[in-house]
Amino acid sequence: MAAAELRGAVQGAARADWELTPLEGVGPLCFGMRVAEVAAALPGMTETRRFQADPSFHEVRGVEFGTGRAEPAVYAYFVDGRLFCVAVDAVRGPRVTLWGRELTACVPADLGRFLLHADGCGVLDVSYGPRGNPGVNGLGPVVRVQEVARGVVTRPVMVGRAWADRCTDDWEGAVPECEWAGRPWPRPTGGGGACPSVPTGRTLGRSVSDRSRTQ
């Protein structure tokens, strides 16, 4: 499918525009907020469910916000009651930009080329995790893919300052396990097949709760 057609397939109703401020927050959300503060910052959304976000770290809790029960838009992740990670739904979530470049609902190959160019120019130090997902260790953004009706598009996941180290690494980073589920980042045509499989359990050099106490 052509890039314009794929992007058009996920451009529905008007969505909010959020700017990512690396390490600090995204849109109206600031890392370190409590659940009630996050809910108050999302007046057009309601909390739809709470869930355990990472089987290896029971203290990590997820809260889903949406415009309806079956329309999730934003996933907020908390440890010790404080916001440390935000993921945005590619179809219903806000349009997230980093320094003017949109990260949400993009064709993966297009955004991948932009990131490679930014890396080559020295603007970003792009890394790729075990599943091939690009991101910027130390700065906090990771780009995943999300399946839509006509293909896959990008879904940004962002963490705060205390959790940005190795954020692209789904084995040692702090992004919750549930955010790594689903399709891996697509390889370019002729890229040599699927990404290698990853063990189901994870061990972190420092636990997520340890990081929250040092923020």
Report on the structure:
This protein is an alpha+beta fold and 215 residues long. Helices cover 16% and strands 32% of the residues. The chain has helices at residues 3-9, 35-41, 108-120, 208-214, and strands spanning 17-21, 25-26, 29-30, 46-52, 60-68, 71-79, 82-88, 95-98, 101-102, 127-128, 134-135, 141-148, 151-159. Strands 4-5-6-7-13-12 form a 6-stranded antiparallel β-sheet. 41% of the residues are buried.
Quick structural overview:
The chain has 215 residues and is of the alpha+beta class.
- What is the rounded Rg? 16 Å
- One letter per element, helices H and strands E, the order comes to HEEEHEEEEEEHEEEEH
Largest sheet: 6 strands, antiparallel
- The structure class reads alpha+beta
How would the global form be characterised?
A: globular
* DSSP, total strands: 13
Into how many domains do the coordinates divide?
A: 1
